[in-house]
């Protein structure tokens, strides 16, 4: 059995005030909670910063410094790939191995656009990874939502070609769930037995939820996946 934590959409900026909230203080509150939990990995599913500046990544690393577990990150549409790699290059990943499970990343970011798209090359690489994964079970993580959110969220800002992604995933029954951020809300969907899980933001939610939060996962050796959204008053 393994545990991991997913946080998303931290939106750390040079100034603490972002989108009408203090994203620095809010993430500090989240980190204070994370360090009390048993965890084998911390996954950040994009939008680590708000404007992708070098200082914002340095500030983010400072805020995360109390966390002793391994940190893994993927880019979001607000991130700058060069500046992200400069500070978090060692945390970028294609695959996270957790006993019977592999967490596999697919890039959905389009330069200069809010919505996402998975390219043919990215889909081919994902197909190859799933084909050659020795893990019994797989999770997929990307930044953008892959289903209609059925909320105030504008689905035009989600993944533009989810059907292409599912054409690959549907070939592999060992894929148990797809995880994402971007929409700043906590919700779960089911697609023919596949869990589709959205992670809330550590900064602010886009719906009526006033709290900040993250998802805490438990992975069992028999393929079961449990998770709970941990909420914190901002």
Distance between the termini: 31 Å
What summary fits the major beta sheet? 6 strands, mixed
| SSE sequence, one letter per element | EEEHEHEHEEHEHEEEEE
Oligomer: single chain
Mean pLDDT: 97
Can you walk me through this structure?
- With 234 residues, this protein is an alpha/beta fold.
- Helix content is 22%, strand content 27%.
- The longest helix is centred in the middle third of the chain and has 13 residues, at 120-132.
- The mean pLDDT is 97.
Key structural traits:
five-stranded mixed beta sheet, alpha/beta, globular, six-stranded mixed beta sheet, 234 residues, 5 helices
Explain the layout of strands and helices.
Layout: E1 2-7, E2 17-18, E3 21-22, H1 23-34, E4 42-45, H2 54-64, E5 71-74, H3 81-88, E6 95-98, E7 101-105, H4 120-132, E8 137-141, H5 162-169, E9 175-180, E10 187-191, E11 194-198, E12 212-219, E13 225-232
Write a compact overview of the structure shown:
With 234 residues, the chain is of the alpha/beta class. Helices cover 22% and strands 27% of the residues.
